[in-house]
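Final paragraph of the annual report: two paired records, presented back to back.
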Amino acid sequence: MKTFFIQCILLVVLLQGCGDKLNLKPDSRIVLPKSYKDMERILDNTDYLNFSPDLPQISADEYFIPSKVHWESLRSVTARNASIWAVDTYSGDRAINDWSFPYKAIYFANNVLRLLENNDHVTETELRELRGWALFVRAYNFYSLVSTFSKAYDPATSADDLGIPLKLSSDIDEIVPRSSVAKSYEQIIADALESSELLPKHIVEGKKNRPSGVAAYALLARVYLSMRDYEKADYYADKALSIYDKLIDFNTLNKTSSTPFTYNAEETIYYSRIINLYSELTSARPVLTYGIDPGLLQLYDPSDLRLQIYFSKNTEGNFNIKRINTLSTFPFAGLATDELYLIRAECLARGGELGQAMYYYNRLLLTRWDPNATGVYVPYIDKSATTVEEAVDMILTERRRALVFRGIRWTDLKRLNLEDRKIRLSRQIDEEVYYLEPNSSRYVLPIPEEEISKSGIQQNIRE
């Protein structure tokens, strides 16, 4: 794989230098990727292509820092600043993988798309799969970037709000200006839609690092939910679940294990993990730097199996996250069926279909319930709601319980505050309390200064 990666770098240099004369090969030792297997290896590079940004997770409200000593012990100044929503997030830090990793993945995807042009070394079926795979990778990473470095999608302002540079070519020297938020989402949706038509519909078991048609639908559901287009979010969540709707009965999992799941957990649709550059605040191991927010823990019923399966107590008496849907200490941030059940439930509730909404809500909760948790048999009783507001509130609370530490909470906060929910974040570190106001400009992370200096693109304003 390392040799092939070096060859890929040489390929890119060759492509840039030769223009359309791709038959020129100045060094006979360079092997140009042409076959399905060649490009499969590029897209199977999980060291770069299956990551999600870290900063949204450490900027959200799912954890607390026990003391100023713990906060000061954080190795990264970026982690310290992001945890308290400082105006200057990086303070000179240069290795901002939340920006560079998604663009590396996009770079690989764009090169595969380039290699597929006029390629007679792959069959039509192989071409469709590889193109769909590359487009999915590009869409997934564009969405990661716009969710981190741009404002939430607002139909009233999206045409003017600053989005991300939409890098659509393999030319490494091309400088692309920032598109609008509207254009950024248009590109994400276009790539995801085309990939949904090209990829095989069903998941390849044992290879969930690879996308499928159901993964493309799940991505579209997540994207449309963040745009508050609840009708389309429901449409694509339904399409995904019509193909793959498996839920794990948590009663079958080992509650005391630090690794109750596998890499190819049954609910996983597409595997991605948080970059974990700031591991003291995101790692799924019993470290002492952070604890799960006590208010979040209080949302779980005593009979909710996730209290034991998702969390473990550390030596300070606080709780840390376990390895959910993965064996890695890098938290899972991919696409899974539990998220789709909740997207359907929320969208149906907002549309006034309370019976159907609560069906999806209860179907998920039933698989998380331990009737003997309290020592007295407590059967799960289907919950109901009588108003749209009540149903939506119940489902949003369940999103907090179900999708903990997946990097999703940050996007939820941005979209929900646009609906005037007035969610004000606070972080107390000893006697000092820091706040993040609803719809603050600090919900948009700054672009790394190195990128600004090299490309000249416009920086985000944080006040």
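The closing record of the year follows.
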Amino acid sequence: MAHRKGTILIPSGSADHLFIVCNDTCSMGANLVVNISSFYDGCDDTCLLDRGDHPFVQHCSYVFYARAEICKASNLQSGISQGKLRPQADMSEDVFFRVLEGFHTSPDTAMRILKYLNR
């Protein structure tokens, strides 16, 4: 079951990307997830992660707020059950807090995501 601070490897393009689950499943049966991508010049540098912030992160990476998604919890669970999505270690509380704070400061966070977070 997807849960707050949980992380999941999800196939995305030619690689698996680490997604952070930002909340426990809500009353609508949904979870907010946001992925981590490799850092590059010009990306959203609101929240950078590096080696030591999570076992999967091996180099400078950023939280890709522009690609945050509200997903049905049942779809996440189905993907996990089928082996298509692979749960990883939970985020530490301090790193997770930085990720959540970034939603409110990133210029790339969609309004629908902010509304979901603030309800």
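Residues 7-118 form a domain with the SH3 type barrels. fold (CATH 2.30.30). This concludes the annual technical report; the extension proposal builds directly on these records.
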